[in-house]
Amino acid sequence: MDWKNYFSCVLKGLIGSIAVTVILTAILSLFMTFVEISESMFSGLYVVITSLGLVFGTILAAKLHGKNGWLVGLAVGVFFYIALYITGVLLGASSKFGLYELIRFALCVIVGFLSGMLGINIGES
C-alpha cells in the first residue's frame, strides 16, 4: 500500500468532513437565531450534522484513494472523532471519557467504515 497517498486521502477526507460539519453547524446556528429549538432536538440535529459531515468526507477520501474504502473510512472516522473530541474539550466540554464518548467514538468508526465502502462502490457499473 502506498502510505503517502493513503494518508493524503485520509487527510483530505478529514478536512472535507470538518468543513461540511462547520458549514452545517453555522447554518443551524443561523436558523436557531430565528427559531427556538429544544435541547433534545438540538442534540438530534447535531448527530445528523456530524454524521453527514463524516459521510461526505469519507466518501471523498475513498473516491480519491480508489481502493480499500473500509480502511480509509475507518481512519477518517477515528481522526474525525479525535478532532471533535479535542474541539469540544478546547471549547469547555468535559474531558472525561465515559460511556457517551465511547458510543460517539463507535458511531464515528461505524459510519466511517460503511461510508468508505459506499464511496468505493458509488458510480461503478
TrEMBL record:
Transmembrane regions listed in the UniProt entry: 12-35, 41-62, 69-90, 102-122
Signal sequence bounds: none
Keyword Transmembrane: yes
Pfam hit, one: DUF3792
Keywords, sorted A to Z: Membrane, Transmembrane, Transmembrane helix
InterPro entries: DUF3792_TM
Entry protein name: TIGR04086 family membrane protein
